[in-house]
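We treat protein structure as text, and this decision shapes the records that our systems exchange. Below, we set out a record of this kind in full and without editing:

***
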Amino acid sequence: MKWRSLLGINESVGGYAEARDPEAVVRLFSTDPSFRSRWPFSVKGAFGCGWDDLQSTTERFVEASRSLSNANRRVIVSNEVDFFEDFVATHGDEIPRYSGSFGNEWERYVASLADVSARFRRAIEKLRSAEALSIVVLLAAVTVTWSSTRSASFGTTSWSWSTSPWVSRMSSI
């Protein structure tokens, strides 16, 4: 999960292995002025340890949590869901809100809907026509018979219409 700018190497905040060295991450969170200016909130999180390792199992995070926690700082080993729930509960009212765009995608999105909307409208029109035709057929009690002979030439199909008191049905011969 990448959710902020890379500060330094890929094993630092913003990289895919940003929590690989928990002691360095806590030190950066506590003292780095560049990070503190970008993330002024008291709840901080770093995710990703394994990077491209085939397997990552370690007790290092639990040990770092115990040794780096003090009266002024609580280091918690957790997951992304718990982090964001805690963050919203603690700083939800302080989060700056932004509603807008960084480009002209709103123009492109509207333009791309024209074809989809037109196809949908045409499909609805065809559906209405088909429904109307089915009502006409039912009211006229017309039986539609479809026949095709395998011995006939390829693609020869004949339709026969006959008036019948029975409900419209399609049968093949």
Q: What stands out?
A: The first strand starts at residue 142 and ends at 147. DSSP finds five helices and three strands in the chain. The mean pLDDT is 75. The beta strands are 142-147, 158-163, 170-172.
